Amino acid sequence: MPLREMAHISMDDSPMFIPPRIPIEELAEADQEQARHVDRLLMMLGAYVDRFSAALELIDSSAEHRKIAKQKRDLDRKDPELIKRDPNTPEKVQDAYKAKDNLLSTWQSIDQRDAIMTIWDFAKTVYEIRRSLERCKSLDDKVSKPQLEKVMAGLSKHFPDRKEARDTAAHPADFTSENPNAIEKHKLKTDFTAPGLSTVAGTFLFGATFEDGSVVFSHEGSTVQAKVNRESLDALTSLRDEMYACFKEAAEPAVVKNLKAMTGRDQDESHRR
Prior knowledge:
The protein is mainly α. 60% of the residues lie in helices and 11% in strands. The protein is built from 10 helices and 7 strands. The chain has helices at 3-6, 32-76, 80-85, 89-133, 137-140, 145-158, 162-170, 172-176, 230-246, 259-272, and strands at 15-18, 192-194, 197-199, 206-209, 214-219, 222-227, 255-258. The strands form 3 sheets. It has a 3-stranded antiparallel β-sheet with strand order 4-5-6, covered by helices on one side. Helix 2 (32-76) packs antiparallel against helix 4 and helix 6 (145-158) packs antiparallel against helix 9 (230-246). It is elongated.
């Protein structure tokens, strides 16, 4: 969806996902501060899923604008009226297209980087929730441990390279600028072949992007991969829901509410008061 169209979407028509909320006051007093921390982290999981979804929307929007720019270039550089007014039209149109395509491509790479970092942030939050529960016994006793382990296994299954991909995408200078030979450590030790790309040993890959949304980096002689696509969004959403299910006996359930309905109800209740 183009950014201009996105800007006119009414928030009143959007669903609002409310994560499970922990009844802090019902827990042992000594555990309440730690429980508040867990409560905030549960909310952050939902925020990270939303952030990843937004990054995908921006990537798709840039891709659509690149297609439109290419179509316009193909028409304009052959337009007889434009050429009649300026014989240099084909070259000027091509130069303008290159500049715009480069800008849109850069926007896509920025959004990819944010999405890759968001996958890491999501996983880090899951681990911090598990660690925090160990320091909050009255809450930990109510949380499903088999369900929690299922979430941990899901992170490893869907995002095995999340740390290496985050490190490379977020901090490229750490891999290329530390000293004149820093990049040598990360060049591929073997040939790498994928649809549309074939490289040989000694190549350094930084954010090679494929049609399925996979982004590949060189890291310590081999390749690491992040999937910035709907498949990963579905995985994050599922893991979020599975994490919330861990708290089925410990918190109020997560709900989805329509903001317009909530606003109307709140107004009705305020009138009654």
